[in-house]
Amino acid sequence: MKALLKDRFFLVFSVVLVALFTVILTSGSVGAQSAEVTFAKDVAPILQRSCQTCHRPDSIAPMSLLTYEDARPWAKAIRENVLSRNMPPWHIDPNVGIHEFKNSVALTDEEIATIVKWVDSGAAKGNPADMPPPRKFDDNSKWSIGTPDLILQMGKDLPVPAKAPDTWKNIVVDTGLTEDRYIKAVEVKPTKGFRAIHHLGATLIYPDGGQAMIQAYGIGKNGNIFDDGSGRLIKAGTKVSFGFHIHSYGQDTITNVAIGFQFYPKGYVPKYIATTDMMGDDAEIDLPPNTDNIRTDTYMTLMKPTRVLSFQPHMHTRGKAMCLEVIYPGGGKRPGSKVETLSCVPRYKFNWMIVYEYAPEVQPLLPPGSVLHFISWHDNTANNKLNPDPDTWVGYGQRSIDDMSHAWITYYSLSDEDFKQQVAERNANRKPNVTAQVAQ
Ligand code: HEC
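# heme C complex -> structure
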């Protein structure tokens, strides 16, 4: 009898408890409804801006993310890839060193939280009336820099079979230039078989054998118009080498790529001449088998005052991370700031050759005698999915099964006077919280 009473008590108690929870849950979901995250209202604008250049038919990504119907089956994968910051491809740490970039495609923490909330709450479509108008994409056949003065393309189309492993090609084309010219604008792009070209870079090969990266294509940005009074030099007799990553996608494709230049008028010499140099002597890299976090340190001394415009780490399949720091000459005058980290790329991926372009107001201004210090880490173990053979010792080499550890740095050399003036301007506009500035 006692037991029965007790049971009854529990029954009543449980009913009350369930009722109570129902009230809490309903009021909770009323609250949540007003803040419901939907595809139409919240997610579509993010995908339009940050994903659709690649995730649309005929572009390089494996699936389209244009509509709700396209994106819904990928909701879980989208959640994982944005949370791990694997997508969109932008592998620099925005919280270390320089924070602002000209060409960043990274999502903000809020945007990532919105996508996660959307997926976790059931990935609802929402009200179609909330959908933003579809994004318009540039016509691929047009040059974003305007009509070039000189267009070079590969003499022969390159066929890509429907099924084949990824390949990397280097194809050299003669410019036919018989005099030096200064470049005002430059653009590189596929002209045929857009979809099979994962990314593409063009390098100038000077008559003396020196090389300089000139322009990369890959992240929805393929042209570069230099600021007035600045540009790049292309010498007579220079050749262009197209280096590209080819990715078969199930259809036989014909590909070709082109570079277009606009020149300054003959005889005009821009005040600032940008150069892209390979920096960091990596000939001695030493990657023992089955070893992770193998550190390599390389250096480059800047002989002239320098304004650094961009950073592009370069390693091969075992590459894992790279940081760039500057060691100031004699310590400079900032107390305790002899060494400053400019950037770290903690999730380097060989498949993505990303050029990180610093925003003008934070481009490092470095006095002569500064040393750029490149610190890289390689993973030569089986945990690295791209590693073709963790049981092999790996050294420096051109083949993608060899490795490298250097960076392409784009910079202007400045006169002492210009340097002083630019530092003074920088300090006058100084915002708290912005790093990479030098007090002279
Ligand atoms: C620069 C081009 C580019 C941009 C921008 C981009 N993606 Fe991707 N995405 C790719 C490519 C190419 C792949 C195929 C895997 C690879 O090459 O890394 C991929 C793969 C993925 C995958 C994995 C698919 C699978 O098979 O599991 C997801 C999910 C994804 N992207 C989501 C996104 C989202 C969400 C965004 C925007 C926030 C985005 N991507 C932006 C090019 C891009």
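# post-check
The domain at 150-270 is CATH 2.60.120.230 (Jelly Rolls).
The chain has four domains: 1-30, 36-130, 150-270, 274-428.
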